[in-house]
Amino acid sequence: MTLPRARVQDVPVSAPPSLLVRDLLFAYPDGHQALHGVDLRIEPGERVALLGPNGAGKTTLVLHLNGILAPGAGSVEIAGLSVSRKTVQEIRRRVGIVFQDPDDQLFMPTVREDVAFGPANFGVTGDALAARVHEALAAVGMQEQADRSPLHLSGGQRRRVALATVLACDPEILVLDEPSSNLDPVARRELAEVLLGLGRTMLMVTHDLPYALQLCPRSVILDDGIVVADGPTRELLADGELLARHRLELPFGFAL
């Protein structure tokens, strides 16, 4: 494994999209229709923000990406591989989800063991496993904390270790759930610098519109299970009527 991955301009033209969602529909057992024919395509190396109000269907969409939920209709592909029961193990390696709360992801006695857990579960052993751990920790600037307990780290450090646990599995796409939540300004900036330096395909689910602008050139707005806008982040955030219509709001005084 080599970190970081190639950027968009280094990817062969023939490479399949990192994520391809086609006409995805999903209803929960109580009959609530959460997704109404969602289409989404993300190319290798793209960084895309998924925006939308609470209840828009963002989490439901994300849970389809690694096979936790199965579509009522439509399809999901990760780097050309369709998500299905037969492919779910490989899909879960290709889709690295970084949870909003690092404590949902960190459970081993040391940082090193936490980062090793994922690739070891996928069959990586010995020197190859040690290399995965080293490279992932180096990518997030946490090598010196490898033998510490995650419980003794700051919130920002735990967030970066959680990211390293996913990077060690060498995913095709990173899915970040509210990555800036509960971070102080310094930790927020440090995480942004790490993410921008990775050069990986990224889908960032967030209510933090300035963070979306900082990290993602493209944004998709999902509301009531429908993609209602898809375009350059700056252009979408400059459309006050669009934001208001879908219950999104920039911080008071924020200037584009």
From TrEMBL:
One of its GO terms (molecular function) is ATP binding. It comes from Pseudonocardia xishanensis. The keyword Transmembrane does not apply. Keywords: ATP-binding, Nucleotide-binding, Transport. It holds the Pfam family ABC_tran. InterPro entries: AAA+_ATPase, ABC_transporter-like_ATP-bd, ABC_transporter-like_CS, ABC_transpr_CbiO/EcfA_su, ECF_ABC_transporter_ATP-bd, P-loop_NTPase. This is ABC transporter ATP-binding protein. Residues 19-249 form the ABC transporter domain. PANTHER family: ENERGY-COUPLING FACTOR TRANSPORTER ATP-BINDING PROTEIN ECFA1 (PTHR43553:SF24), HEAVY METAL TRANSPORTER (PTHR43553). Belongs to the ABC transporter superfamily. The keyword Transferase does not apply.
